[in-house]
Amino acid sequence: MTDTTPEKSARRPHHWRRDVTELAALFTAVAVADAVANLIGHQPGGPYLLIVSALALAVTAGFHTWWARRHSHAPPPRDDTGTAPDPGTGAGTGSDTGAAARTAAGTGASAGAAPSAKDTVLWQMRTTVRDAPGSLAVVCGALARHGVDILTLQTHPLGRGTVDEFLLRAPARLPARELSRAVSAAGGGSTWIERADTHDLVDAPTRVLGLATRTALDAAELPLALRQLLGRCTIHSLPAVSVTGRETGASAPVEGVLEGTVMRLRDPSGGALTIERPHLPFTPTEFARARALVELDARLGPRVPRGAQVLTLPEGNEITVRRADPDDLPAARAMHGRCSERTLRLRYHGPVLDADRYLDHLLGPRFGRTLAVQTASGRLVALGHLLWDGDETEVALLVEDDWQRRGIGSELLRRLVALAIEAGCESVYAVTQASNTGMVAAMRSLALPLDYQIEEGTLVITARLDATPVRSLPPYEQAGR
Q1: 400, 325, 410: which is closest to 368 by C-alpha?
Q2: What is the DSSP letter of 466?
Q3: Could you say which of 257, 278, 300 is where a domain stops?
Q4: Given 101, 117, 391, 465, which is the most exposed site by the fewest CB atoms within 10 A?
Q5: Both 323 and 472 in a single domain?
Q6: DSSP 261
């Protein structure tokens, strides 16, 4: 809250007592001067003594005037708090780190009026500076000279330097290449920069706590949490045993392994998690955060959020849609037994006898999310899978023959896409055959931009989600976050 002072109250009040006192002092001074002049003037050498006294008084008055003017603009004492900050300077916005960096640079806010939000862009930048006093200040000064505002700053100490991670608000007219050159000229090395958005304005501790909460609620969130924690990276979950029952040899030490742009962590469900990021080595700080997140997942054990929604089909039958987990394995195998060979072949693209082997993988929360559809009697009649495949996301459907052509597949696909959008996926793809008209129709019903690729009879349909708004989720999906 800012205190304001009216203009009229800012004027000095006029006091008549002060005028009377000054006038009385003037008459007293004249009387004293006259008495001194009469006393000294009638003695030998008196006139000369008066002239010397007058000169001394004049010199003293001149010295006093010069001294007062010289010290009238002296800086305030150290205990002076100064005036209230101007709201436009960013004080009180919570950007303490950015303000400290600007102060360290010795440049303060950039000159001129601050550009409007529509004339600026957000950038994430990472650069390595020498571990020496003033190195960060030089980089901050270079940013300030280009009108760049530092919103957040994180430091990652290394053995031979420090990796500084910035969130910047820069003028839209400033290209990334010029910004990178300015930082490099200021001593920054291995500079990496990419566009950011408003979601990146959340500070690191808040973001890490949010990711830990999502991971604690749902084991399927771990790969997504790691990707959001580490930025653009590829995550591979390598099981200890393949779907064919052979040991893969995938493992990692308990403490994990960090090797430049690759880190390997022990998967709590068995096997290993391999995280790769091109052209940007992981820092020990990032490695410690990722390891802590994986350890949290291991301590909590297998978990799938509970919740369900009952839907009524056009013919009047009620079905329940919910999250599936490994406990549904017997019911899923029974559903396989009721499906025709053609249905299983269209889903698994291989020998029908191997279909059951995939269920352990598909129902495990580490590899994605699975929605199950069951009837009022509790029979499982459909499964919908959202599978993490490195940087991409696959959707797959399996509906029992007797329950096909009732809209169940389209309903499952719509919900899987909503979950993918919520997870921040830019696209989803489905692998099927050109003869699978049901899957093609379900993908087209999404009303999303689709890309089609056909190779040797295999059809890959990719739906782009980046421009799709997130719809409000049903209660069971909100509980499954």
Answers
A1: 325
A2: T
A3: 300
A4: 117
A5: yes
A6: T
Partner residues linked to 125 by β-bridges: 166, 193
Contact 399, 408 (CB under 8 A): yes
Contacts of 117 (CB under 8 A, 6+ apart): none
Q: Which residue has the tokens 């708004």?
A: 469
What one-character DSSP code corresponds to residue 247? B
Q: Name the strands in the sheet holding 392-399, side by side, starting at the edge strand that comes first in the sequence.
A: 308-312, 318-323, 368-375, 380-389, 392-399, 427-433, 458-464, 450-455
Residue 481 pLDDT:
34
Cβ atoms within 10 Å, residue 345? 16
On whether residue 212 sits in a domain, the answer given is: yes
Spatial separation of the C-alpha atoms in residues 417 and 444, rounded to whole Å:
13
DSSP 241: B
Q: CA torsion, points 124, 129, 134, 139, in degrees to nearest 10?
A: -40
DSSP, collapsed to helix, strand or coil, labels residue 242 as: coil
pLDDT for the residue 97 = 39
Instruction: Return the half-sphere exposure (C-beta side, CA atoms, 13 A cut-off) of residue 31.
Output: 6
Domain assignment of residue 24, yes or no: no
Q: What is the CATH number of the domain that holds 464?
A: 3.40.630.30
Range of the domain at 226: 204-300
Tell me the H-state helices in 131-189. 135-145, 176-185
Closest alpha carbon to 281 in 256, 258, 265, 260: 260
| Spatial CB neighbours of 243, under 8 Å, sequence gap ≥ 6 | 354, 357, 358, 360, 361
Contact residues for 463 (Cβ-Cβ < 8 A; gap 6+): 417, 427, 428, 429, 443, 446, 448, 449, 450
Residue 372: its pLDDT value, please?
A: 93
Q: In this structure, how many other beta carbons lie within 10 angstroms of the beta carbon of residue 275?
A: 24
User: Of 300, 320, 344, which residue sits at a domain end?
Assistant: 300
**Which parts of the chain have pLDDT scores under 70?**
1-54, 56-118, 199-201, 242-245, 248-249, 390-391, 467-481
Q: Give the count of beta carbons closer than 10 Å to the beta carbon of residue 26.
A: 10
152 assigned to some structural domain: yes
CA distance 366 to 265: 14
The answer to whether residues 226 and 172 belong to one domain is no
Task: Residue 102: count other Cβ atoms within 10 Å of its Cβ.
Answer: 23
Is 208 found in the same domain as 192? no
297 touches 215 (CB < 8 A) = yes
Q: How many domains does the chain have?
A: 3
* CATH number, domain with residue 173: 3.30.70.260
* DSSP H helix total and E strand total for the chain: 15, 16
